[in-house]
Specification:
heterodimer, A: Rossmann fold, Rossmann fold, six-stranded mixed β-sheet, 23 helices, 20 strands, globular, B: 276 residues, mainly alpha, two-stranded antiparallel sheet, 10 helices, 2 strands, flat, ABC/ECF_trnsptr_transmembrane (chain B)
Amino acid sequence: MNKKVISFKQFSFKYRSQESPSLYDINLAINQGERILITGPSGSGKSTLGRCINGLIPNTFKGEIKGTLERMGGDAGDQRIPALSKKVGTVLQDTDAQFIGLTVGEDIAFALENDAVPQVEMKKTVAQAAKQVGMELFLDQSPHDLSGGQKQRVSMAGVLVDPVSILLFDEPLANLDPASGKATMHLIDRIQKETGVTVVIIEHRVEDVLAIGIDRIVLVADGKIVADAPPDQLLCSGVLEANGVREPLYLTALKRAGIPIVPELHPESLDHMRLDGAGAALLAWTHAAVSEKEHPLGQPILNVSHVNFHYEPDRPILEDVRFSVRKGERIALVGKNGAGKSTLTKLICGLEHPDSGTIYIGGGDISTQTIKERSEHIGLVMQNPNQMISQNMIFDEVAFGMRLRGSAEEEIKRRVYESLKICGLYPYRNWPVSALSFGQKKRVTIASILVLDPDLLILDEPTAGQDYRHYTEIMRFLESLSEKGMTLIMITHDMHLMLEYTERALVMADGRLIADQPPAELLSDADIASRANLKTTSLYHLAERVGFSSPPTFVKHFIQSEQGRRSCDENAHAQLH
Amino acid sequence: MRMHMLSYIDRATPIHQMTGAAKLICFILWSVIAMTTFDTRVLVFMLITGVIIFWVAKVRLSEISFVLSFILVFLLLNNLGIYIFAPRQGTTIYGTTHILVHLPGIFSLTCEQLFYQLNVSLKYFAVIPFALLFIVTTQPSEFAASLNRIGVSYRIAYAVSITLRYIPDVQRSYHEIAQAQQARGVDLSGKQKFGRRIRRASAIVIPLIISTLDRIEVVSNAMELRRFGKKKKRTWYHGRPFTRIDYLAVLFAGLLLILSLWLTLQRGSRYYNPFI
């Protein structure tokens, strides 16, 4: 049990292309069979730490190393990836791009093929590994027929064909819907129990990882290890929030109710946490008045009426979808992958045409309008900003849409500056886009749509891949747009986003709209939640555990109090400046 | 929506069941025959065989029509080119002159020239069905395995296969990007002037290149982490041993090559001459 598999000693690393080190003075030991969560905000160095563990550093990414790093008891310098990868299996974040083979079986076999293992033996090992992750019936499927969760299972099987002693997961939850994320964590849990491997998970969604039981949390910030402790201790120290990582929601709720979090309560897992007496305090807190924020709504601006759509005969993608949206609304469009969410947005933007049914915008039927005419009313922001940005300079990128419309250069300048100011990018107006972070690029794409002054903004996963700090930044920004009267529809897998920043959830499953209700109510409906691959938040679970009669009311109270705190913060912030 | 052109089409036919290596060998032999002979009878026989095999493989014309029309345009240009630059090639080869239409200079249309150009076109038609069939009935990874089997380094073979493997993905992201740009007001319809259309196309091409490069980095890391390129040799999950149909096909193509060579040697010329 106590055999060291990874040992960093006064380890520093600087990428060749960068000015300052990405990791400083790292001291970290990982023992055989441990479950470690490495967390930290974006750019903290946690991914770099992962690359050191699997050997991409120093083999592929060159740079300057100080101190020592021992893997499996050997020194890092003489360990090349081929030998190392038999010991350290890595599952990358992007489930699509790492799928190398053309079928499930071939992808799992990839490492064996490279070892020139004879075919008969290879097929046997592949079948075994596939069974371990529950994909044995899919061996001949191509990646396009698989869901994100299934692709991830295949990646896992692909490293399990080796006798690995460490499994390294790089943000395993980033691209999954809530239910698939939960299933992934349980699979990791099961494999660890069966094989006794060391599991290292790099992830900023702490609450979801904690669900399977973690031995230690390593918190990385600014290239240093800030904390390295068992979850029960670390969660009590408040060090996560201080470093821009979100703590589990149930803990935030308990803190708000004035309950001190101490290790003796076992805050690591809500199921096993001691909550004696917490009920009364929470109840008292729920009764405290919270100023409810008025969010005035205007006229209906979008009306989707009995819309049907299909690509292939007998396989309807959308069936009888109908809803209407009023000006100023904030809506979450949720449901599992392939439920029809993006098709619905395509229809609204006019990229596809409904087989039957109508879509009205601002009272007029838009079926006769071209995509370009519709783009005056509706703005679409894609998930990956790299798929939208086509210009070198920030100013040009934001101006692009107006130039296409042939606006006068004076007018363009005025509106681009205005839009950049709203998005907090005005100081960077003359910068090249490539100098920006991912989150800033996302804001550039929002600015480039805002400049066209649409009535309705549709955002696909506005916060995907963002840490808590950037997540809050983007969402507050969208909130401020909404306060100015912008209507927002957000496609998301993030239940927290839906709860905290929207008032209404549209739930799609198998091409139908199966629910249209406030998010807090939606998540208390177990049937709909499971049909749409959603997951109830830990706040419900907390409310249930302390025996509240109406968990949704508790959740609603929590959300409103958080919103109240946010606007207080903002006022304070505004007064400071 | 479906815009996969020239990618593997999975159907249960004898042609699909053949190993990639056998198909590749047949294709190479077939090309050698078509390149070396101008014997109209052999070429016609090859064309007919090609069409039959096409029918056996259950590939629909609509699935390859785009590429086919592309090839036909080139063929037409090629024919025009030959006529413009060498209008008397046929007469030189066949040694007789049967004028059909009198035209100024050397441009009179002769039976010999027509026959010669017919043969050139036949050469195309003898190979095209096989080239297309090979691509649409061979799984990219099996294709890599077969290249490797006939002696190509597996690194090169895999590079080719992975390119084929990601073509549909790139097509898909092209489609997504195009739609996002259209939703932003980029007009991709034909109503624009050519210059503006080119400029607007860059609104799609640049994001496509950037996201493809991102992807390449991830894939190459993923491949390295699973030991690609470590050893000199590599085995293939999808590799298959030769079966009877493979041997028969290779035998058939080989015999045809021998027959064609024999005809050429006997005649002492690559050209079948109906004019003497």
